[in-house]
Amino acid sequence: MIPRLHTRQVRDKLRKFPGVALLGPRQCGKTTLAQQLGGAYFDMETESSRVRLDAEWESLVRGKRLVVIDEAQQAPDVFSRLRGAIDADRKRNGRFLLLGSVSLALMQSVSESLAGRLGLVRMSPLILPELKARQMDDLWLRGGFPDGGLLNAEMFPEWQQDYLELLMTRDLPAWGVPAKPQAMMRLLAMLAALHGQPLNASQLGASLSLDHKTVLSRCDDLSGAFLIRRLQPYSANIKKRVVKAPRIYWRDSGLLHAQMNVTDLDQLYGQPWLGQSWEGFVIEQTLATLSAAGKRPQAFFFRTSDGYDLDLVLDWGDRRWAIEIKLTSNPSTEMIERLHKTADLIDAERRFLICRVGSKIENERLLVTNLSGWLKRVSE
Question: How many independent structural domains does the chain possess?
């Protein structure tokens, strides 16, 4: 069993709050993590668990065991009961652990019933710091879902294709998304082709016979299911004209590659969108590693109308980091000079070039390193 970095954060939050909400995509390892913590486990997708939780509620509330409620978004009525139990004894921490596979529905319930009563932990599929450095390309190709081929190559890409189909035909309708599965599958195909590019909702809508507001709403649903990320542009105090449309990224590279019918590294290296795939992989590994470490800088991209571009900007409030991502083992002097010129436009304190070098190059302002070295740096 692979130790998960999020475990420490969950334990820490349980010491500080009456309950914790652990949010992340289906099959990313939430249930396994929760079961390692012990306690009484209830799965809200099964009728027997719902009935048992109702029948045993009073004894559970009075007891000292951790109560784990899986797929909590399937039982919205439980949140008011949790609020009552927590408010009756606010001094007791570490009582409830809620697991949710959709951020939108669960966060709405939390904000309505449990604001200030729950700590929040966001969990991702497996990330490189949880694995061996030599597994990087396997992680990039197949993604981080434990059952999706990372640990058993034969499962990829069939597992991912089934995952996407079930998400569109079963999960999203069950979560109240008012869209036909076939329309959502067409949207997925278009979003895969747009990976790493600006999101133009009007153009997408024209292709799908939908208005742009509906497209944005469906993208909200896919974001809430942890499938896509919309990275917003950085524009604070910039004198140049900047691109204002968000960039769209698939959060798991294995799901993206399965959607694009890429099954091995040779195929992947032959794709015209290879660079965008690597870029999105590094961005997601970065943000997931930061989240696992309990760090939450604001994340952006930056691009001016005359072509100055940063793949990732991390805003820490009092300082900014400029990050450029390249699929090369031999970065050129021109790449570094361009990075510095672009970083100067946003007054970035530190500049980072993430590529596939064997050893790092570092000075006061610049770090050129590989992905493993970069993730170690951001998690410190």
Answer: 2
